Amino acid sequence: MEILKVCFILLSTASFLWLSESVTLTSDYYQKSCPEFRQIIQQTVTNKQITSPSTAAGTLRLLLHDCLPNGCDGSVLVSSTPFNKAERDADINLSLPGDAFDVVVRAKTALELACPDTVSCADILAVATRDLVTMVGGPYYNVLLGRRDGRVSEASTIPNALPLATSPMSEIIDIFTSRGFTLQEMVALSGAHTIGFSHCKEFSAQIYNYSKSPPYDSQYNPRFAQGLQKACSGFENNPTLSVFNDIMTPNKFDNSYFQILPKGLGILKSDHGLYNDWRTRPFVEAYAADENKFFSDFARAMEKLSNYEVITGNQGEIRHRCDAIN
Q1: Where are the domains of the chain?
Q2: Which among 65, 199, 272, 320 is annotated as catalytic?
Q3: Residues making up the binding site for heme b
Q4: Is 320 a catalytic residue?
């Protein structure tokens, strides 16, 4: 009898641990624990975007840099310490905009006042990104909730996990496909370049080497390249110099980004690569011709990205501050 009792206790404990570690994301996760969650996020991102119009693009980039390397666990938000160089201080992340970090911090501060120790930084980043995308004209998509924040953030895990502006298309494709994303999803996510800007240092080496006549399959439109040379003159002394990724409608989320690529008006080497590579060009052309298709595919790809290798239950924590592990 005692043996049966012990076995029952062990089985019950194992079942409890399994249940506690296999929590699934849900749309109403904070309905009871933090009913003001969505309202607080919406109010925070609205105020921030109005005062700093680059916030939407920056936060969208921040989410990608958080999710793609190690899953959507808010690890990119953590600051370095004397004992650990965190993800945000990896070379490729040094250009992540302060406004993106700031909007998450503001939302976290407001949520801690309303419902302490309840909402993860990873959930805040995911929802804030979606709300900001829709604010600038992009599609609405569902964001499931219940992520936990990661307990590890190391800069050493970032190299080769994120595409560089100068990366060959084959390397960029490998980064996405090795994480389970299709080519179509990769191109759709690249449409995020319809908003935001790039620093001159990321493409300066390319703007002095371009084709003199159409088609501009692999190079810049000559007049555009000359304009970039003027806009970026002196960037060595002023590393903050930058240019909009989409020169036609830089502050509106639309399909203009895909329409300018065949015209040699892309900014980065990776932008040109999307149109030049036979594997990705069909998707570029499809999105250039049909904004609704781009929006639909982008929304589905963002839902998938936002759920990439999330941690739940006992696997993570709810940080007291987004920039520090508890």
Answers
A1: 24-161+308-315, 180-304
A2: 65
A3: 193
A4: no
